[in-house]
Amino acid sequence: MPGKKTKSEKLRTKNYIGLALDLGTTVIKGCAIDLKQEKIIGKTKTYNLQNEFGSDVLIRISNALQGKYEILRSLLLQSIDKIKDELKVKSPDFIVVVGNTAMLSFYQNKSVAGLARFPFKSELHTEKIKITGKTFMFPIIGSFVGGDTIAGILASQLFSQTPNHQSLTPALYIDLGTNGEVALITKGKIFAASTAAGPAFEGVGISCGSLAIPGAIERVRYNKGRFIAQTINKAEPVGICASGIIDMLALMLKHKFVDSSGKLIKSLNIAGFSLNQADIRKLQLAISAIHAGVKILINKANIKTKNIDEIVITGEFGANLNTKALKEIGIIPSNIKKIRFDNDLPLKGAIMMLKNKNIIKQIQAIKDASKHIELAAQPNFQKIFVSAMRFEKWN
User: Fold this and answer.
1) Is the peptide bond before 346 cis (omega within 30 degrees of 0)?
2) What is the DSSP secondary structure assignment for residue 94, as one 8-state letter?
3) Do residues 97 and 353 touch, judged by C-beta distance below 8 A?
4) Average pLDDT of the segment spanning 209-222
5) Is 62 among the domain residues?
6) Which one of 22, 42, 177, 288 is most buried, by most CB atoms within 10 A?
7) How far apart are CA 56 and CA 58, in angstroms?
């Protein structure tokens, strides 16, 4: 019989497992990494159990301040435990966490009282970025613009800390999530804002909505008088995820099922699913929130939409979004040609940190270059927001 392994032999054969977590308002995502081989060994997602206390962070913060903080924090930790169970990673050797400011506050057991009212200050102190024990939490930018935005920008490679980054042409980063973060990267600076888009782009709160799971309709096309649905993995339809909803809405506008004001003229049924008037109003609010955020950041940077070289879009949307549909319904400027889609960029940023701790220098550079813009404090915000409620192209 072979002898018992020595302590040093055990250390050499031990599998070091890292866990990347993206704490979203609606969905929690996790990825397990073999740190020795830098190999992904599992990836999963689950609904944030906090959803039962409201679909947006402001409602949850209000509940927390009314005596439900511990319940909300417990629900978040239970969601994380579910991720760990599914990945079979009970005690990871290192954890990297990203998320919006509210979720990170609950995670760190910090008060959310400062986020309940203007000027929306967090108790998270992240000026000096460092690794604490076995955990690293991406820093926030300000207000509701959290570590998920820095992680997403990192993974997008839109910002470089090399001397050449000063001459890069402007680019937009958009996260179509419940918190709806947008960032404009230009001349070594980053202007960032949270748009409170709501969960519509994640398929939540829409009567026929679905997460990007097998069976979710991710594409809707029109061909020779017929509307054709394509589902994820070609499975039986279970609902419509973000990419399918955007396709469907654009086609409804084109074929006069909906007018530019958002009024539903007649219903369109796709594989047994349809958008009702309430759904369309929720989508209007989400679209106008993103639109207004992008427009204000462009104004702050004192540039024109034609100067923007590229848009990178991330989120829980399923297949690559239809760029024509995005422009038709007014989410993004219609004169920008280079558009890149990449699901889960915040989670990918967390994975990058797991694989290479030296990347903390680039994280610090992104943090230092970032300036938070509070949209509600801008004198023209309401006017831009209301104008963006119309479904129409813009430049």
Assistant:
1) no
2) E
3) no
4) 93
5) yes
6) 22
7) 6
Confidence label for 119 from pLDDT (cuts 50, 70 and 90): confident
Q: How far apart are CA 150 and CA 250, in angstroms?
A: 31
Report yes or no on 80 lying in a domain.
yes
DSSP, residue by residue, 249-274: HHHHHHTTSB-TT--B-S---BTTB-
**Count of H-run helices and E-run strands, the chain:** 11, 14
For residue 139, what are the domain limits? 7-160
Contact 139, 150 (CB under 8 A): yes
Provide the CATH number for the domain around residue 132: 3.30.420.480
The continuous run of DSSP H or E covering 341 comes out as: strand 339-341
Inside any domain, residue 121: yes
Q: pTM of this prediction?
A: 0.91
User: Who's near 257: CB < 8 A, 6+ residues apart?
Assistant: 251, 264, 265, 266, 267, 268
Strands 239-240, 310-314: parallel, antiparallel or unpaired by DSSP?
unpaired
When pLDDT is averaged across residues 225-233 and rounded to a whole number, the result is: 94
CB 28 within 8 A of CB 48: yes
Q: Is residue 46 part of a domain?
A: yes
d(Cα 63, Cα 216) in Å, to the nearest integer? 32
Q: How many domains does the chain have?
A: 1
Q: Report which residue type is found at 227.
A: F
Is residue 184 within 8 A of residue 286, CB to CB? The reply is no
